[in-house]
Write a structure and sequence with these properties.
Distance between the termini: 22 Å
Radius of gyration: 17 Å
CATH topology: Pnp Oxidase, Chain A
CATH superfamily: Electron Transport, Fmn-binding Protein, Chain A
Structural class: mainly beta
Number of strands: 12
Strand content: 35-45%
Strand order of the largest sheet: 3-2-6-9-10-5-4
Bound molecules: flavin mononucleotide
CATH class: Mainly Beta
Shape: globular
Length: about 170
């Protein structure tokens, strides 16, 4: 067997080098990139870039994603009735960057459609999952959200891929 690039036994104390090594190892796993959106109590659109999205169950139709406890939007997502998972297309890395930033108006210049519960549906995506905010579970420094898919659609478009800390196309993987 080849020598591993890095091999770590996780120590009880979570020092920075250990966390970096774990992040590098987890980053080997290729994911798509989504923007999860909702409408705040004051009607403002809210959204952030998320790659922790995954399928959970077909019957009932459930998905999962996780939100950092440090997010300023934690309370908004905790309390909302619906959110939308927008699956980004290959040409939307700029949207991933924008929604991963602390920009004041992440929706500037975008004209999203309004989904269930008013959750913004971004144009040009590969797929959309409109979800009821069914359950939340503790997950260390993140909160896990289980969404019940109430409406979805998808297009034949190439998805954006995230792997090894970089955006990629399927053909690069
Ligand atoms: C590719 C990518 C995937 C990300 N996935 C997640 C995630 O699953 N959960 C999360 O809480 N933050 C994730 N982030 C970080 C957030 O997008 C980033 O912290 C953002 O500023 C959060 O927005 P907010 O500060 O308005 O809540 C990801 C960032 C990138 C670039």
């Amino acid at each position: 067997m080849n020598k591993p690039i890095e091999a770590f036994h996780i120590a009880p104390s979570s020092e920075a080098a250990g966390q970096r090594a774990l992040r590098n190892a987890l980053g080997v796993f290729a994911t798509g990139v989504t923007v999860v959106t909702m409408r705040g109590a004051g009607g403002e659109p809210i959204g952030l870039t998320v790659n922790s999205f995954n399928a959970v169950s077909l019957d009932p139709p459930l998905i999962v994603w996780s939100l950092s406890l440090a997010s300023p939007n934690l309370e908004s997502f905790r309390g909302c009735g619906h959110y939308a998972v927008n699956v980004l297309a290959l040409d939307q890395a700029w949207l991933s960057q924008r929604f991963a930033s602390r920009e004041a108006d992440k929706f500037a210049g975008l004209e999203p459609k309004s989904g269930l519960g008013g959750a913004p549906l971004l144009t040009g995506c590969c797929a959309w999952f409109e979800c009821a905010n069914q359950a939340q579970h503790a997950g260390g420094d993140h909160l896990l959200f289980i969404g019940r898919v109430e409406r979805h659609s998808h297009h034949r478009k190439e998805p954006l891929v995230f792997q090894g800390g970089r955006y990629r196309a399927l053909r690069d993987v």
